[in-house]
Q: What sequence folds into this?
């Protein structure tokens, strides 16, 4: 048993006063925190393991404060002596984002968004009352410095990568003016900082919030902008308008006097822009610098989101150089630069992706006239087949997938594979080629190569809409 699992088991055993029936590692998010679902009889809890003790302390303080106000967050049930692990109530697996993806843009889903914003307004105001912001993880308030930080993040990690001329000093001056404008707001409450649909869990049809440890005092419009303009959610303008109005109605109920909606709305659009640019900066850093395929693929979506905003929404303040930069960033030339080629319905290209065993099968043969393609050796990745519980599973099973994604270098390996493969796929699409073969081999052709083949097919379908055929050549010999 590794140290992490032993820590979680010890904490859960102390809480239940007996050893838990099951501890299951949950899929990891973008952070270094690791989550487990712990079960004992009919009781299910979530355990968190995180070496960042300050982050744990902030989350626990915020949670206890919110629960005292009767707000929709989990309960903290226990912490261990070192502060690196804690237990909280289990809010289930169904996030608002998952509901949107499975159900689509229905009336019921729209109401869930409205309910979430109403719950947010309550948390922002009631959560602010009596809050000791010295417990914040970073800054105590989202003020001018934080706004400038987000704007410079966009400048360094996206704008400057375009290598296009602009007046740097004039842009910084405009940044200063915008930051001053946005910090002079009448309302400042608790600001979630990363309020989006994947951080909203649905339990018994009601929204509950998680992952607010980055919160601070700030303008409430920022959280609404984060949710309604989330690129992955891709909400329509009608939904954004209706839901923002619904949010203002909800917030008004918690204010001592009615808000000036015109001023509130103008500043909201300023925070929308800040959030859109911060996201572009993050995609630039993760995609252009760290070469992570998922973030590269998200850049054109974020650019189209920004383009619509620039063309349709006022900023409320005169920033001429900033305006020029924005028009450059959302120009057709820049959007096309980041938009990958797409296979149309009549595209002749099919990508054949195989997993195989070096020992039992050898290299797959390409019987096409052109031949060629790729063979990738996955044997440098830690083998799940060495772990007894995974021996009869394959790279398609959830437990093996979690092991490869969270405990091996498979993600880094595939990011490099995608960088190489994408070059040929784009060229083949442009030239009308019909066939490309990609092969992944490992010792038994059951775990690592199978996972790599499945994920590569998924990547190519999502990014290029290309036809894929996946074949696990050694499947008949898997240990079952």
A:
């Amino acid at each position: 048993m590794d140290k992490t699992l032993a820590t979680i088991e010890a904490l859960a055993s102390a809480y239940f006063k007996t050893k838990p029936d099951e501890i299951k590692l949950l899929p990891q998010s973008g952070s270094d925190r690791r989550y487990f679902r712990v079960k004992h009889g009919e009781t299910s809890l979530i355990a968190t393991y995180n070496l960042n003790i300050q982050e744990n302390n902030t989350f626990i303080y915020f949670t206890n404060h919110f629960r005292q106000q009767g707000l929709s967050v989990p309960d903290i049930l226990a912490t261990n002596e070192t502060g690196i692990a804690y237990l909280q109530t289990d809010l289930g697996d169904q996030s608002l984002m998952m509901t949107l993806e499975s159900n689509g843009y229905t009336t019921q889903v729209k109401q869930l968004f409205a309910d979430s914003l109403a719950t947010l307004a309550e948390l922002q105001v009631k959560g602010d009352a009596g809050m000791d912001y010295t417990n914040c993880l970073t800054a105590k308030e989202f003020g001018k410095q934080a706004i400038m930080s987000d704007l410079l993040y966009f400048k360094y990690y996206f704008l400057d990568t375009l290598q296009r001329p602009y007046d740097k000093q004039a842009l910084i001056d405009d940044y200063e003016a915008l930051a001053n404008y946005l910090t002079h707001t009448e309302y400042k409450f608790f600001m979630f900082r990363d309020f989006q649909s994947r951080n909203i869990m649905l339990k018994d049809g009601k929204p509950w919030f998680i992952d607010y440890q980055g919160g601070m005092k700030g303008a409430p419009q920022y959280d609404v902008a984060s949710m309604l303009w989330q690129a992955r959610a891709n909400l329509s303008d009608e939904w954004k308008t209706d839901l923002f109005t619904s949010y203002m109605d909800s917030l008004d109920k918690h204010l001592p006097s009615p808000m000036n909606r015109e001023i509130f709305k103008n500043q909201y659009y300023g925070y929308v822009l800040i959030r859109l640019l911060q996201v572009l900066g993050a995609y630039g850093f993760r995609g252009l610098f760290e070469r992570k395929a998922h973030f590269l693929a998200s850049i054109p979506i974020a650019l189209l989101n920004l383009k619509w905003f620039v063309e349709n929404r006022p900023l409320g303040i005169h920033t001429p150089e900033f305006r020029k930069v924005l028009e450059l960033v959302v120009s057709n030339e820049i959007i096309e630069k980041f938009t990958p080629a797409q296979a149309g319905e009549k595209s002749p290209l099919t990508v054949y992706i195989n997993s195989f065993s070096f020992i039992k099968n050898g290299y797959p043969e390409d019987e096409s006239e052109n031949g060629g393609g790729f063979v990738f050796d996955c044997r440098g990745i830690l083998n799940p087949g060495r772990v007894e519980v995974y021996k009869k599973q394959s790279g398609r099973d959830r437990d093996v997938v979690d092991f490869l994604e969270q405990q091996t270098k498979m993600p880094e390996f595939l990011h490099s594979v995608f960088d190489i493969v994408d070059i040929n796929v784009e060229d083949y699409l442009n030239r009308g080629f019909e066939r490309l073969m990609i092969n992944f081999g490992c010792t038994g052709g059951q775990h690592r190569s199978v996972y790599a083949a499945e994920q590569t097919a998924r990547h190519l379908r999502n990014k290029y809409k290309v036809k894929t055929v996946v074949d696990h050549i050694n499947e008949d010999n898997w240990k079952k």
